[in-house]
């Protein structure tokens, strides 16, 4: 894993600017005023990642109802993410952390240097850019949808 360490809840979330599936830059700083969920995942088209993101897709109303924008990030190239997004009909942005490879994942302490991919880390950033919740799961362990729901409820409280 990266040496940067996972940012602590209550601190300012690390910035990131990454291309979406069409090459348009998406900057966390430009989303200030809106809460954002940043969800890092290892690989497009892989079994656990597909199951996790499809579960988020199917429960996108929970994010919409809380006014939270969902950004899913991996180190896959933009074109692979576009193909996967079109196949699965994801209603949220998939962002490519391909180059500089893993820079955003490193900033969030979830880059696996040995394998060159992001670990399963999720971060909820409030409208002021402060980290309000995070979870990082070990390799092969999906994040439960209930954890997102609890974090969204706490943000709204």
TrEMBL record:
<keyword id="KW-0049">Antioxidant</keyword>
<keyword id="KW-0676">Redox-active center</keyword>
<protein>
    <submittedName>
        <fullName>Peroxiredoxin</fullName>
    </submittedName>
</protein>
<dbReference type="InterPro" id="IPR024706">
    <property type="entry name" value="Peroxiredoxin_AhpC-typ"/>
</dbReference>
<keyword id="KW-0560">Oxidoreductase</keyword>
<dbReference type="InterPro" id="IPR036249">
    <property type="entry name" value="Thioredoxin-like_sf"/>
</dbReference>
<dbReference type="InterPro" id="IPR050455">
    <property type="entry name" value="Tpx_Peroxidase_subfamily"/>
</dbReference>
<keyword id="KW-0575">Peroxidase</keyword>
<feature type="domain" description="Thioredoxin">
    <location>
        <begin position="7"/>
        <end position="157"/>
    </location>
</feature>
<dbReference type="InterPro" id="IPR013766">
    <property type="entry name" value="Thioredoxin_domain"/>
</dbReference>
<dbReference type="InterPro" id="IPR000866">
    <property type="entry name" value="AhpC/TSA"/>
</dbReference>
<dbReference type="Pfam" id="PF00578">
    <property type="entry name" value="AhpC-TSA"/>
</dbReference>
């Amino acid at each position: 894993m990266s040496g940067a360490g996972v940012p602590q809840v209550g601190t300012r979330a690390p910035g990131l600017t990454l291309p979406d599936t069409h090459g348009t830059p998406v900057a966390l700083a430009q989303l200030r005023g809106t809460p954002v969920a940043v969800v890092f995942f290892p690989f497009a088209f892989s079994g656990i990642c597909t199951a996790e993101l499809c579960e988020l897709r199917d429960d996108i109303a929970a994010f919409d109802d809380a006014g939270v924008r969902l950004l899913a990030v991996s180190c896959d190239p933009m074109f692979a993410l576009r193909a996967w997004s079109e196949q699965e009909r994801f209603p949220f942005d998939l962002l490519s952390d391909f180059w500089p490879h893993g820079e955003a994942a490193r900033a969030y302490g979830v880059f696996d240097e040995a394998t060159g991919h992001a670990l399963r880390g999720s971060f909820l950033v409030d409208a002021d850019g402060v980290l309000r919740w995070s979870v990082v799961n070990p390799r092969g362990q999906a994040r439960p949808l209930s954890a997102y729901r609890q974090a969204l409820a706490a943000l709204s409280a």
